[in-house]
Amino acid sequence: MALRQGPTLMNNFESILLTVIFLAFLAGVYILIYKGSRPPQPVPEYPTPPRKAAVASLIPVACVAILYATFKGLDLYLRDHLAVPRPLSIWIILIGVIAPWCVGIYFAYRTARAANKTLRAIGSMEVLLFLLGLAVPIVAPG
Question: How many CB atoms lie within 10 A of CB 65?
Fold first, then answer.
């Protein structure tokens, strides 16, 4: 009797559960920031103008795409090769990981300083996602 290979129904439910828990965590953090017991946060003294904030809110999305492309490209490269050469790996880390993360969190912060409440919420969520993305390599084993 052959064992069945491939994803099972339980694995699908576990991935859905993990996604729901992650979204619930983000919603809880959002509620703590915007609906907590303290008074609303004042708009910064020099807020980002709405047009600049709208453009700044799109830049972190592009940075996430660059990060995804970097890791996907590494995955494709490592399928055929055993390891990435050391000088190339340093450039990949600097240009493909660190630079997009720094640019993304900077523009997410600029969006979070917008005068428009919707853009402030989008920017705050982008900042939280980038900080969570920073926490992954710190706490990941290996």
Answer: 11
